[in-house]
Specification:
The protein is α/β, with parallel strands linked by helices. The chain folds into 2 domains: about 10-230, Aminopeptidase (3-Layer(aba) Sandwich); about 250-325, RNA polymerase II/Efflux pump adaptor protein, barrel-sandwich hybrid domain (OB fold (Dihydrolipoamide Acetyltransferase, E2P)), CATH 2.40.50.100. It is about 20% helix and about 35% strand. Strands 1, 2, 3, 4, 5, 6, 7, 8, 9, 10, 11, 13, 16 and 18 form a 14-stranded mixed sheet that branches. A 4-stranded antiparallel sheet has the order 15-14-12-17, with no helix packed on it. About 45% of the residues are buried.
């Protein structure tokens, strides 16, 4: 359905009082104008429960090629009954419409808007876009789940970034039933960071890999969102506990290649590493080994590169450093 069809309400900002209780409404939220003077709009779904309650926002595709979160939001709203819902659920399946349409991570091939939040009303194109998302959409939320995936040329475990020093976000992270949780304070220009500045508990969920739909990851993420709704008392749903306890990391960081060439990364996702384990090598086009890399510390593989074409400074492996309580079992 087009954003411009009559069944979709055009709005320039979200005012929840304008949506009747017990209804679900499809909206086209105006953000900025394009070079032809037309309004660029993002799709928003608003499910207002029949009785008051919390307001949970779920967002996806802040990076335009990270699409796994789109069907998570579609499936969630497809199963929501606004007549029994307590509170309000707001879903925005495509936050970065220009990047989505161009099948790129950045807006206009230039701006990573998830490093520009909360933006500026008088800034460049990326800063204004970020500011409008925050001022026209984010201000309605009381809780936020921001859905992402790995970037091009990389693959991710199902993991969550959250401030584990905050009881609410720590609980939201565990309810996702991820493989890994990384403690990460939101101070990096992200949408999650903008939410935190407004006092909105927020987590980032990495739902698999870019430029594809992955049914198993989508299913697991949808279950995590429903767990949060149940925990907040918004739906009648038994909180599901599946799989093993997540590995909780006190921090994480990427390892970068010092030499360019053809990259091979050996460990798989969620593999446990000990200091000194071989993790990667780089060869030239004739097959001669130019560099080999080992783990600088004990850890777990949160994500890894899949693109063999490697320049100096390219990302190789995302290494999580588990908390002491998550270290038993490491070889």
């Amino acid at each position: 359905m087009s954003l411009f069809q009559s069944e979709v309400r055009r709005v320039e900002t979200l005012d929840l009082d304008a949506f009747p209780l017990g209804t679900t409404t499809r909206c086209a939220l105006g953000v900025v104008h394009d070079g032809a003077g037309d309004m660029i709009r993002v799709p928003v779904l608003v499910a207002r429960g029949s009785v008051p309650g919390p307001v949970l926002g779920i967002t996806a595709a802040v990076h335009g090629n990270e699409v796994n979160g789109i069907p998570v939001i579609q499936k969630l709203f497809g199963g929501l009954d606004s007549s029994t819902l307590r509170g309000t659920v707001i879903g925005c399946p495509i936050m970065n419409m220009p990047a989505y349409l161009s099948n790129t991570r950045e807006m206009n091939y230039e701006f990573d808007i998830n490093r520009l939040m909360p933006g500026r009303p008088d800034g460049n194109a990326g800063e204004v876009y970020a500011h409008r998302l925050c001022s026209r959409l984010l201000h309605c939320f009381e809780y936020l789940i921001d859905l992402h995936t790995a970037s091009f040329g990389r693959t991710n475990s199902l993991y969550v970034r959250a401030d584990l020093g905050d009881e609410t976000t720590r609980s939201m992270a565990r309810l996702q039933q991820p493989e890994i949780i990384v403690h990460n304070e939101p101070r990096d220009g992200t949408f999650r960071g903008a939410a935190d500045e407004l006092g909105i508990p927020a987590i980032t969920v990495e739902v698999g890999n870019p430029q594809r739909f992955e049914p198993a990851r989508i299913r697991d993420s949808l279950l995590g969102v429903k767990n949060v709704l149940a925990q907040l008392g918004m739906i009648d749903h038994e909180i599901a506990v599946v799989g093993e306890e997540p590995v909780v990391c006190e921090r994480s960081h990427w390892l970068f290649a010092e030499h360019g060439g053809l990259l091979e990364v050996f460990p798989g996702l969620t593999d446990r590493l000990c200091k000194g384990d071989r993790i990667a090598r780089v060869s030239n086009v004739f097959g001669d080994i130019l560099a080999e890399y080992v783990a600088p510390a004990d850890g777990i593989v949160v994500g890894r590169a899949t693109n063999p074409v490697c320049q100096t400074g390219a990302r190789m492996l995302h290494l999580g450093v588990p908390q002491a309580s998550s270290r038993p079992g490491m070889r």
